[in-house]
UniProtKB/TrEMBL annotation, chain A:
This is NADH-quinone oxidoreductase subunit J. InterPro entries: NADH_UbQ/plastoQ_OxRdtase_su6, Nuo/plastoQ_OxRdtase_6_NuoJ. It holds the Pfam family Oxidored_q3. Its main location: membrane.
UniProtKB/TrEMBL annotation, chain B:
It is a multi-pass membrane protein. It catalyses: a quinone + NADH + 5 H(+)(in) = a quinol + NAD(+) + 4 H(+)(out). NDH-1 shuttles electrons from NADH, via FMN and iron-sulfur (Fe-S) centers, to quinones in the respiratory chain. The immediate electron acceptor for the enzyme in this species is believed to be ubiquinone. Couples the redox reaction to proton translocation (for every two electrons transferred, four hydrogen ions are translocated across the cytoplasmic membrane), and thus conserves the redox energy in a proton gradient. This subunit may bind ubiquinone. GO terms for cellular component: plasma membrane. It comes from Granulicella rosea. Its main location: membrane. Belongs to the complex I subunit 1 family. PANTHER family: NADH DEHYDROGENASE SUBUNIT 1 (PTHR11432), NADH-UBIQUINONE OXIDOREDUCTASE CHAIN 1 (PTHR11432:SF3). Keywords: Cell membrane, Membrane, NAD, Quinone, Translocase, Transmembrane, Transmembrane helix, Ubiquinone. It holds the Pfam family NADHdh. It is an enzyme of class 7 (translocase). This is NADH-quinone oxidoreductase subunit H.
Length: 189, 356
């Protein structure tokens, strides 16, 4: 049962990721990314990380990707043109990616004993409650990193607001609405 | 019969899912009838009264009509997305009912099973988060329907719906934090049990002093379900029919059912979190009638009654209050509801830490 869940959703995640790369329309790519995130959430859940799974669904697929789709829809982005790709990508990218993949799989396979293992789906049966433990660790031992991260995100939001704010146009002296509701702009001579 | 424990569990769960699905879809159909009837009485007319006694067979007639209508699809649509959008909307609306406990914890012992819960499909530790997560996925149905229709009105409607739902989701989620703080759990059964001490007096809305959270929840839930006064995504005076302008036949019916199924889910959540779920208002003050069967059935009736009251409130509001303007809607969500919800969390946390 747990193995079947793992195989189905792992295959779905890989298929979604491939589709994400192969699709030419931004909306289709964004939706494949949603599929990847949802399948990852199921995998997290089958490993016992239920809070992580819920957060993945709510934050990533429910908020971040909705925003992406919203922006693509609003800008009405068209289909991408397919190019043959740069030569550097072929000569450096593919061997590089293969090397990173080999290195990672070597490390994981050789160190698999020291990394420890988790019983796939074992947590689904006895329903452990780990939200309490997560919040205890988050607000005691990891309090400083947690707060620093939230300040970092706050700074990022402020930065976005500053960048998006319109500079007052030096040419325009006043802009006001007249009685009929039409905006009147008086220019400096 | 000699089934393995897993197979027994699987078959029983499938039976439960089918029963809950049938009941939910029937109540969706009759909520539509209730809406038309109540709207009729509020406008001093009869409402549907021809099909069957008191018009009770009207949902059946509507269903057959929508099935038999021609399924029109414009030429310039994005076809896969156009087809999948109503499916996303309806399935997300129906899936979240799976974690709602309809009655008290009643375990039936089937062979090989430790205890089989009768009155909910699945009792999971993060039930509340699951409902919030599935609601947030439901936005895709509306967003994609408008975009794939290749129609200006539909696109505007779905843009409005998306931005509105993202904005009000925050206030909705924050308004529930106070409840979670009081119950100390995200499990819906635990939250219901935390309100069961003294009947109605210990419900979160009265004894828990969460009435502010309740008002914030109710307003943002209206916006999440795209109901009046926040039904700008389908404002017929500006956008024809909003995001489902190009949909006909069963695809339109799926959006329609999704709206009412969302209303039912929202009413269930409000009942569970603020009105004690399936517990009776006088708690244990009155003796039980009917022994074990009565103890299992009466809570379900209380639950249905509470949900019905919320559905009636939805309909009542729709035919009473005019629509918001779009900028008012956004300003209200971000500048009024969200600060109130945050203050509610702070006050609840302060009171709880002073008390303990």
């Amino acid at each position: 049962m747990q193995l079947a869940l793992f195989i189905i959703f792992a295959a779905l995640a890989v298929a979604g990721a491939l589709n994400f790369l192969l699709q030419r329309h931004p909306i289709n790519s964004a939706l494949s990314l949603v599929v990847v995130m949802l399948s990852l959430a199921v995998l997290y859940w089958s490993l016992g990380a239920e809070f992580l799974a819920a957060a993945q669904v709510i934050v990533y697929s429910g908020a971040v990707m909705v925003l992406f789709v919203f922006v693509v829809m609003l800008l009405n982005a068209g289909e991408e043109e397919r190019t043959t790709g740069s030569r550097a990508a072929y000569f450096a990218g593919i061997p590089g990616a293969a090397a990173v993949f080999c290195l990672l799989s070597f490390v994981f396979l050789s160190e698999s004993k020291t990394l420890g293992s988790s019983n796939l789906g074992g947590y689904l049966n006895d329903g452990t409650v780990n939200i309490v433990e997560i919040s205890k660790i988050l607000f005691t031992r990891l309090l400083l990193p947690f707060e620093v991260t939230s300040i970092l995100i706050l700074v990022a939001i402020l930065g976005a607001v500053v960048l998006a704010r319109k500079e007052p146009d030096p040419k325009v002296v006043t802009s006001s609405t007249d009685a009929a509701g039409v905006i009147v702009i008086k220019e400096k001579v | 019969m000699n089934l393995s424990p897993f197979l027994t569990f699987f078959l029983l769960t499938v039976v439960k899912i089918v029963i809950v699905l049938v009941i939910t879809l029937t109540s969706v159909a009759y909520t539509v009838l209730l809406e038309r009837k109540v709207a009729g009485r509020m406008q001093n007319r009869w409402g549907p009264s021809r099909v069957g006694p008191f018009g009770l067979l009207q949902p059946l007639a509507d269903g057959i009509k929508l099935f038999l209508k021609e399924d029109l699809m414009p030429l310039a649509i994005q076809k896969p997305l156009f087809v999948i959008a109503p499916i996303i909307a309806l399935s997300c609306a129906l899936v979240s009912i799976a974690v709602v406990p309809f009655g008290p914890l009643t375990e039936v012992h089937v062979h090989g099973q430790p205890g089989f819960d009768l009155f909910d499909i699945s009792n999971i530790n993060i039930g509340l988060l699951v409902i919030l997560g599935i609601t947030s996925i439901g936005v895709y149905g509306i967003a994609l329907s408008g975009w794939s229709s290749n129609n200006k009105f539909a696109l505007l409607g779905s843009l409005r719906a998306t931005s509105q739902m993202i904005s009000y989701e925050l206030a909705l989620g924050l308004s529930l934090v106070g409840i979670v703080l009081r119950a100390g759990s995200l499990n819906l059964r635990t939250i219901v049990a935390s309100q069961s001490a003294h009947g109605a007096l210990s419900w979160n809305i009265l004894g828990g002093f969460q009435i502010v959270a309740f008002v914030v929840y109710l307003i943002s839930a209206f916006a999440e379900a795209n109901r009046t006064p926040f039904d700008l995504p389908e404002a017929e005076s500006e956008l024809v029919a909003g995001y489902h302008t190009e949909y006909s036949s069963m695809k339109f019916a799926m959006f329609f059912m999704a709206e009412y199924a969302n209303m039912i889910t929202i009413s269930c959540v409000a009942t569970l979190l603020f009105f004690g779920g399936a517990s009776s208002p006088w708690g244990n003050a009155l003796p039980n009638i009917g022994g074990a069967i009565g103890a299992a059935i009466f809570p379900v009736l209380w639950f249905v009654l509470k949900v019905f009251c919320f559905l009636f409130l939805f309909i009542w509001v729709r035919w009473t209050i005019p629509r918001f303007r779009y900028d008012q809607l956004m300003a209200f969500g971000w500048k009024v509801l969200m600060p109130i919800a945050i203050v509610n969390i702070l006050v609840t946390a302060l009171v709880m830490s002073v008390r303990s």
